[in-house]
Amino acid sequence: MIPLISSGNFGPAGMCQLPRLWWKVLSRQAGQLDPDYPDCSGGLDSMVLQQLDLDKDRTLNYIRREMPTYLEFENWVLGQKGGSLDRQVVEEWNKYIRDRIHKEEKLVDIHATLGLANDGKMQSALLLNHLEDWHFFQQRDLVGGLQEKVVPLIATIDAGPLGVSQLPRTWLKVLLEASKLLHPDYPACGGGLDSRVLEVLGLDKEATLSYLRGQRPSYLEFEGWVLAQAGGSLDQRVVEWNQYLLERQHKEEKRVEIHTTLGLEDDGSLNLAMILNQLEDWHLAHAELLG
Fold first, then answer.
1. Cβ neighbours of residue 142 closer than 8 Å, sequence gap 6 or more
2. How many Å apart are CA 21 and CA 43, to the nearest integer?
3. Which of 11, 147, 186, 290 has the most CB atoms in a 10 Å sphere around its CB?
4. What is the pTM of this model?
5. How confident is the model over 220-273, as pLDDT tens digits?
6. 190: DSSP letter
């Protein structure tokens, strides 16, 4: 299985890459990680542990032995660090993740995989790694690779080249549903963020769903279709939409429901919808992985 938790995702402690590392190690231990993906690479996986001054072998052994939920893993990390992380370390690391540019050899490789010209227009390592993961997920997992229904692990805050948050998640959910692989707790395109992102882009919902279900496009093909429907450009509403998703808070009923699912006391410290939704996704995916 291709790991869809991105390097840009983070939990309550705010450290990018940490959830992706957790998921890859967990998936490999469960025999589910795609063989082309190392569970702890010499790149960002090892680097995030170095940034946190965590012993690599001890950390990996903990995950492999205990098979913790993400919150259990993050709490273990905090325990190694005296209860909190250095905010300057977190902020500098996250900026590095978001600003990182691949070396030329890697740029050529990923562009070739995606069928794109390496013309210098797309160099962000975070974006290219998203696209590569989504490409391989569709090619390997959606086409005969998956046997069980899965939790959609592309996050609301993840975006493709158009820079529209939630759009990749909606694409994934609809494709999973079309392949009868979407976890039953998730609607393919409900009345929430999935419908709202289509409204922001001025897309007809039924026409979009018909295209996705009928054509089963790659994510880049889907974005090309979206751009064509929008007349070749997107307006200022996308910036406002992305900011809304970063700041959005759940209503009390939903917040309490997710805290209950996670086995957490709702003490007011976790309010952001983007964090709570990711934690819920990771919690359910963990339960599915362990069967």
1. 175, 176, 179, 181, 216
2. 11
3. 11
4. 0.95
5. 999 999 999 999 989 889 999 999 999 999 999 999 999 999 999 998 889 999
6. -
Cβ of 163: how many Cβ atoms within 10 Å?
12
Alpha helices in the chain (DSSP H): 18-29, 44-51, 56-66, 70-80, 87-99, 104-114, 125-136, 167-178, 193-200, 205-215, 219-229, 237-247, 252-262, 273-290
Q: Residue holding tokens 């993840």?
A: 158
Question: Which string of DSSP letters, residue by residue, matches 5-67?
Answer: S-TT---TT--TTHHHHHHHHHHHHTT-S-TTS-SS-TTHHHHHHHHTT--HHHHHHHHHHH-
**pLDDT tens sequence across 155-197:** 999 999 999 999 999 999 999 999 999 999 999 998 899 999 9
- Residue 164 CA to residue 166 CA, distance in Å, equals 7
